[in-house]
Amino acid sequence: MTSLSISTYPGIPEIQAQDDLATIIGDVIQASAEGIAAGDILVVTSKIVSKAEGRQVAATDLDEAISTETVRVVASRPHPGGVTQIVENRQGLILAAAGVDNSNTPDGTVLLLPDDPDASAQALCTVLRTRFEVPIGIIISDTLGRAWREGQTDTAIGAAGVQVFEDYRGTEDSFGNILSASTAAVADEIAGAGDLVKRKVSGRPVALVRGLQDLVLTDDELSDPAHTAKSLIRPSENDMFRLGSKEAYAQGFEDGHVTARASES
Amino acid sequence: MTSLSISTYPGIPEIQAQDDLATIIGDVIQASAEGIAAGDILVVTSKIVSKAEGRQVAATDLDEAISTETVRVVASRPHPGGVTQIVENRQGLILAAAGVDNSNTPDGTVLLLPDDPDASAQALCTVLRTRFEVPIGIIISDTLGRAWREGQTDTAIGAAGVQVFEDYRGTEDSFGNILSASTAAVADEIAGAGDLVKRKVSGRPVALVRGLQDLVLTDDELSDPAHTAKSLIRPSENDMFRLGSKEAYAQGFEDGHVTARASES
Fold first, then answer.
1. Closest Cα of chain B to A38: distance in Å?
2. What residues does the Coenzyme F420:L-glutamate ligase-like domain cover (chains A, B) (predicted)?
3. Per-residue b or e along A11-40, where b marks 16 or more CB atoms closer than 10 Å to that residue's CB
């Protein structure tokens, strides 16, 4: 009994600005052996969404492009090859390089993240649900680093038609204890699972995840803001790591110094 | 063409202290329709490893059990229900409650993480490779929170027989740019993918991931320390979030105050 299968669609062409991504993906699905079925979830690499949305921009200076996308600097660390900066970007994500990508782009250009990845997911979801007349979910993925752990994992930055959390809070375990703090970020797990298949062959930016129909929403639930990738971003008032340790220490040192001086005079 | 399938083995009994977990899992595999094949990866929930290793301990006071497992406090935040503490625990993981679990345990007891999850994975891997005479991988998973993002994802805390990273550094993209910062933490993505299936039915603590044989190591590579879940933990000298912002600020304030006072006198 296979509970979950993940595959990729072959034949997705290199995407260009102004391409109609939903139609291109729909045509590929229609021509494929896998097709699409009720309860399927598509994991779409953000890069092709960005390209279709014309987010490839001229940039002679990568650092300048990164500054433009940065809302605030969270932490920075010099290393032999330059400086790693972790920032909050325009989409509210905390990540390196503000999500500006200069891989897989022609010289002199960089690729920005989709302006509103949840809206991009919603648009794809609506067109594909209408065309194939089945409830499906869309997750737009990007590759993000993490605090405390090495390496990156693919993460959900846009979502539509799919539950992003599975909430166990308030349910009882088999010993009758209430599970108080268990909310699985299933959309992030799905994005990572999609990467496991997409990474294997280049030119496969869309993964088909089949077997999680319990997470796929009805048409009526589609516009519920609880089901967005934005809701996966922790609000700043609950964020215990809003600044890097070095940066927070420096701010504290400055304030402590000023306070002591003020009380002396 | 399905590239990856994930299923669970039925019939794994409630695990008790001193149970021979490798034999129990081996027997379940042998009796199953799925069986096991070269290149398969098993994702094993840490809870059953802990139980077999006798890590269920009497604890009348959960907070006391958490302190015992804590090496240092990283951050804490009061909230209406108590205080959330993020700590570094004995296994080097940064997580809430030091990995001490009081769900699915009888009243008056808590469950600690396996003492050395990589060693636990190695032991399972060796026994199962010998019994079934195929190269397989083992990932021991636990549910961890993240900085900046809501919800938890299943993460690799122990690994054996499987690459934990896929390293793209130094490879070229299709435009000839060198990819400098791309190391996928595939073991964490696999742990999360396993959760997507295990979560669906209770009492399914082992997921079978089939289709990632390129990540499974040969017998000769089994003891290479590069392929451990420990290597997924960022070394403290590279960790920009070693302390919570509030804690680092307070330390800085104190030091700034003392420095100013000293320069006055």
1. 17
2. 12-211
3. ebeebeeebebbebbbebbeebebebeebb
Alpha carbons A97 and A70: distance in angstroms, whole number? 8
Contact between A209 and A39 (Cβ < 8 Å): no
Segment B202-207 mean pLDDT: 92
pLDDT tens profile B114-163: 999 999 999 999 999 999 999 999 999 999 999 999 999 999 999 999 99
Domain definitions of chain B by residue range: 1-55+113-169+184-233
Residue B61 neighbours by CB under 8 Å, 6+ apart: none
Residues of chain B contacting residue A251, judged by C-beta atoms under 8 Å apart: 249, 252
Residue among A154, A164, A174 whose CB faces B104 most closely: A174
| CATH code of the region B1-55+113-169+184-233 | 3.30.1330.100
User: Using a CB-CB distance cutoff of 8 angstroms, which residues of chain B are in contact with residue A48?
Assistant: none
- CB contact under 8 Å between B3 and A4, yes or no, is no
Amino acid type, B32: S
- Strand order through the sheet with B70-79: B70-79, B82-89, B94-96
What's the burial of A53, exposed, middle or buried (CB within 10 Å: 0-12/13-18/19+)? Answer: buried
Could you report how far apart the first and last alpha carbons of chain B are, in Å? 76
**Residue A125 · residue A160 · CB < 8 Å:** yes
Mean pLDDT over each residue of chain A, to the nearest integer: 92
Report the candidate in A170, A173, A171 with the shortest Cα–Cα distance to residue B107.
Answer: A173
For residue B10, what is the nearest residue in chain A, using CA coordinates?
Answer: A1
Coil, strand or helix at B28 = helix
Which residue of B lies nearest to A32 if distances are taken between CA atoms? Answer: B1
Q: ipTM score of the complex?
A: 0.95
pLDDT in tens, B58-67: 988 888 999 9
Q: How far apart are CA A103 and CA B208, in angstroms?
A: 34
| Residue among B1, B196, B257 minimizing CB distance to A189 | B196
The pTM of this model reads: 0.95
| Inter-chain residue contact A211 with B197, CB threshold 8 Å | yes
